[in-house]
Every structure is written in structure tokens, then in C-alpha cells.
Amino acid sequence: MEADKSMKTHHETGQSDKMRFEAQIEQPQFERHRRSWATLKWFENTPKTEEAFYLRLQELPDEDVTFLKSFYHVTEDWNLFKLICKFWNIEVSGVMKNAECRT
């Protein structure tokens, strides 16, 4: 029975993604800033258009989206998108707001 327990994933053991992310959020502030910067740099070579940044955000791993939302105290993908665009000096017209949401 103990052997079965060691082979279970975090989903099978009942550990939720929320608990994993809460543990990350409790990291020392310096580490959180470093991770935020590293995640924002992921957009560095993206063409500087609203559409390109929107498509790039769709490719960002869910755990990074969750982290950035927590770090910047936003709850909606659209607000995170605007924040990322502002960071990179990308004008947001709102055209992408009605685009398909993250899945």
C-alpha cells in the first residue's frame, strides 16, 4: 500500500493547484520579484503589437499566469494582459478583449 502512495501525482493525493501556488506565493519577496521579472521577460522578443502580445499570453503556462495575477493583485486575464502590455509600452485598444478567452 505504501508503494502505491509514492506513485500518486499531486492530483491523486488531493493536493490542489491552489495549495501548490499558495506555497510559491509564500516565497521570500526577492524570489517573487525575480520570478515576476523572468516571466515578464518571456515577452521580450514578441513583436510589439497588441495582437502578438495577446497570442503570446495564450501560450504562457497557467502556473505563470496564476503567479503574475497574484503578484500584481489582479484577478482577470484581461487586467493581466493590460498590465503586461503597459510594462512593455504596448498600446491596448481593446480589440483583443472580445477575443477567445484562455482555456
Write up this protein.
With 103 residues, the protein is mostly helical. The chain has a domain at 29-98. The chain is built from six helices and no strands. It has helices spanning 2-6, 17-25, 29-41, 50-59, 62-72, 77-87. It is globular and about 35 Å long. The termini are far apart.
Short description:
The chain has a domain at 29-98. It has 103 residues and is mainly α.
What would the average pLDDT be, to the nearest integer? 80
Write the H/E string, N to C: HHHHHH
Continuous helix count: 6
Number of strands: 0
Tell me roughly what share of residues is in helical segments. 55-70%
Salient structural properties:
single chain; 103 residues; mainly alpha; disordered N terminus
Layout of strands and helices, then pairs:
Blueprint: H1 2-6, H2 17-25, H3 29-41, H4 50-59, H5 62-72, H6 77-87
Helix pairs in contact: 3-5
